[in-house]
Design a protein that fits this description.
By secondary structure, this protein is an alpha/beta fold. The chain folds into two domains: 4-167, Rossmann fold (3-Layer(aba) Sandwich); 223-337, Dehydroquinate synthase-like - alpha domain (Dehydroquinate synthase-like, alpha domain), CATH 1.20.1090.10. It has ten helices and eleven strands. It has helices at 70-83, 97-109, 123-129, 167-184, 193-210, 225-234, 241-258, 264-277, 290-298, 325-335; strands spanning 4-8, 15-20, 37-42, 55-60, 90-95, 116-120, 134-139, 142-149, 154-158, 309-311, 318-320. A seven-stranded mixed β-sheet has the order 1-2-9-6-5-3-4, covered by helices on one side. A hairpin with a 2-residue loop joins strand 7 and strand 8 (142-149). The protein is globular and about 60 Å long. The termini are far apart. The structure holds glycine.
Length: 340
């Protein structure tokens, strides 16, 4: 079956992302020649696992967001030490975005930097989390506040893993896929799934190659994420990331409209791609607490000079700082959200 190979061009740290069915069998191509041992970091419910030629051990991490923590990093470091993992060896993260973020950060900090290979098994992981080298964990004050940029040696997106992906997780991935429609204006809907995933990876690879450390264009990948992170936290993570991103993009469209940056037609296009084409929820099930959400949005990593959003506008999607609370209120009103 056809597979796709995408290059993430980062000079001597460039690597490939392979998308296709059964591509997990190519894992040895990514294992460094000098590696003698591998630690596979994964979760109990992951349906595919690699078979490695070198000596390996598997460490399971917890399933829920509370395990994306410094405590898990310490546990992994302890396991690495017990197994005798050196800086010439390799960590292999096998799972969704949470696993690859945690495995990547553990690898980045182990002996100040140990190679890592990612096997993405969720749609979010394939089109976003596993590509681009962002790794990290949450602390009480916010999501992904402690982390490092640590590029993998390669990424495998094996579509066989999607066969058993729970429908809710699939929908979460579609939230991130929908994001790429607005970033590029591409009609991704006309592509079949493996080509669509490969195209998302290609768009992300280009953005990351041009701005690895997010000093410019990479921030656009956070479209819909300012409200999304606040919704996730205020719901105590009962709202999943992709679901929150879908709602966050609808909110961003209303906000851009309130600020007279886009027309009502463009807002409607958001509803038709996110709600109609991808079947995603366009508002949270639960009632919301606007004050709490606004407070959380002030804590966003982008909010260096006031409330900051990635917003659509006459020259496309861009980072906009100093957004007023009055405009946020207008956007909340336009979404007709029920409040508690
Ligand atoms: N998930 C956004 C980024 O990788 O920059």
């Amino acid at each position: 079956m056809t597979s796709h190979k995408i290059n993430v061009a980062l000079g001597e740290r460039s690597y490939s992302v392979i998308v296709g069915h059964g591509v997990i069998n190519n894992i040895d191509d990514f294992v460094p020649k000098m590696a003698k041992r591998a630690v596979v970091v994964t979760q109990k419910n992951i349906s595919i696992q690699p078979t490695l030629k070198i000596e390996s051990t598997t460490v399971f991490i917890g399933d829920t967001e509370e395990h994306k923590s410094l405590t898990t990093i310490e546990m992994l470091a302890q396991k690495f030490a017990e197994f005798g993992l050196t800086r010439n060896d390799v960590v292999v993260g096998v799972g969704g975005g949470m696993v690859t973020d945690v495995a990547g950060f553990a690898a980045a900090s182990w002996h100040r930097g140990t190679p890592v290979v990612h096997v993405a098994t969720s749609l979010v992981g394939m089109v976003d989390a596993s590509v681009g080298g962002k790794t990290g964990v949450n602390i009480e004050s916010g999501k992904n506040l402690v982390g490092a940029f640590w590029q993998p040696l390669g990424v495998i997106c094996d579509l066989d893993a999607l066969k058993t992906l729970p429908p809710r997780e699939m929908r979460c991935g579609l939230g991130e896929v929908a994001k790429y429609h607005f970033l590029t204006g591409d009609d991704l809907l006309e592509l079949e799934m493996s080509a669509r995933i490969a195209r998302c990876v290609e768009i992300k690879a280009k953005i990351v190659s041009e701005d690895e450390r997010e000093s410019g264009g990479r921030a656009l990948l956070n479209y819909g994420h300012t409200l999304a992170h606040a919704l996730e936290r205020s719901s105590n993570f009962s709202m999943a990331h992709g679901e929150a991103v879908a709602v966050g993009m609808i909110f961003a469209a209303h906000l851009a409209h309130a600020m007279k940056r886009i027309s009502q037609d463009r807002v409607d296009e958001h509803y038709s791609v996110i709600g109609d084409a991808y079947g995603l929820k366009v508002k949270p099930d639960e009632t919301i607490d606007r004050r709490k959400l606004i407070q959380l949005m002030h804590l966003d990593k982008k909010a260096i000079s006031g409330l900051t959003f990635v917003l659509d506008g006459p020259s496309g999607i861009e980072v906009v700082s100093g957004v007023s609370e009055a405009h946020l209120e207008q956007a909340f009103d336009a979404m007709q959200l029920s409040e508690n």
